[in-house]
Amino acid sequence: MIRKIVTIPNKILRMKSKKIGYVDDSIKKLAADMIETTLDWDHNSEFGAALAAIQLGEPMKLTIVRKNFENTDQKEFTTLVNPKIVKASRETAKDIEGCLSVPGIYGRVKRAVKIKVKANDLDGHEIRFSAEGFAARVIQHEIDHMSGIIFLDHVKRSEDLFEIDENGKLNPLKGPINPVRDI
Ligand SMILES: [Zn+2]
Predict the structure, then answer these.
(1) For residue 100, how far is its CA from the centre of ligand 1 (angstroms)?
(2) What is the distance in A from the centroid of ligand 1 to the CA of 89?
(3) In a domain, 50, yes or no
(4) Three-state DSSP state, 159
């Protein structure tokens, strides 16, 4: 079922998500809804790389992450239950991020280049894996959502903020320095 995505300045996005005990049918349904909603959101030059449950208003430690960020015709996702970063590289990199809950705005955010992640899958099995580059960035962004953190919280300089135009081009953001300052 396609559901409504919670967007700023809704304070739901500031809630802390709860650890999932047992993956029951309602969690599986929520994960399926998250994938359907993300694919429905894809448009023009923008595509949804991932979604956290809080973005559908459900404060649960659950995220779905696209398996292939280059070819958006591929519509497969990895579902992570209770994901946790167990190790992060000291090396960081700054790159552009967007968020389905922050429509039209992009920002340059510093993230660890490599991470090691522990999570469960929907069958309750523990999974451990390493991620780097954009995948590592996306997972750090999603885990932030579980603590009520929005990517713009990491953006301190106005020159790191952009808005997307109808051609998919990023232009310097006009208006408030940081639109999440007050939420
Ligand atoms: Zn986001």
Answers:
(1) 6
(2) 22
(3) yes
(4) helix
Cβ atoms within 10 Å, residue 156: 11
Tell me how far the alpha carbon of residue 65 lies from the centroid of ligand 1, in angstroms: 11
Q: Which residues surround ligand 1, an ion (CB under 5 A)?
A: 99
* CATH code for the domain of 151: 3.90.45.10
**Cα 123 from Cα 21, distance rounded (Å):** 12
Q: Residue 178 falls within a domain, yes or no?
A: no
Residue 157 lies in a domain: yes
152 CA to middle of ligand 1, Å? Answer: 10
Task: Reply yes or no on whether 70 is catalytic.
Answer: no
- Tell whether the model's pLDDT for residue 167 goes beyond 70: yes
pLDDT band at 155 (very low <50, low <70, confident <90, very high): very high
Give the active site residue among 142, 159, 163, 166.
142
| CA–centroid distance, residue 49 to ligand 1 (Å) | 9
The mean per-residue pLDDT over the stretch 82-88 comes to: 98
140 belongs to a structural domain? yes
pLDDT in tens, 62-83: 999 999 998 888 899 999 999 9
